[in-house]
Design goal:
Keywords: Membrane, Transmembrane, Transmembrane helix. This protein is an all-alpha fold. It contains five helices and no strands. Helix 2 packs antiparallel against helix 3, helix 2 packs across helix 5 and helix 3 packs across helix 4.
Length: 162
Amino acid sequence: MDQQPSIDSAKSPRPPRPRKSAEERNADLRATLEPLAPGERPTAVTVAALVSALLATANLGLMLANLNSSGGTARPATGIVFAVLLYAAAIGMWKGRYGAVLGFEAFLGITLVFSALSIIVASNLLGFLLPFVILTFGGTLFWKLIRAMGRIQAQTHTKSRP
């Protein structure tokens, strides 16, 4: 009869490694990112700045033409505030400011959620396909901006080190 090793005689597994803190994991990830060169702006940030400026201009143009999706009159104060925010984001992103990219990411994320939800109430083919176009291009830009934000943040952390 063959002897089976008992459970007690088996090697005990290695003790688990201690988990790194969030800041340690962030530092490891930042170390893998190449900081931006002076004056460098990632392509995704440039595209986002242009999209932001284009949306602000289109918003003002539609407001001046007194058009909106419901066919009624637009509220000028709301349109102006929205356009000013988009222009501020565009200028901030053009200058490579982390906060501006983060703010535009928030706006883009909200837009993507509403686009996805609008598919539910689509009443014609255009209303059904347009959200998919917005989700495709907006989602791609959102994803590309995440790495660009990491590079901008890596540049900031590199400057602050002694």
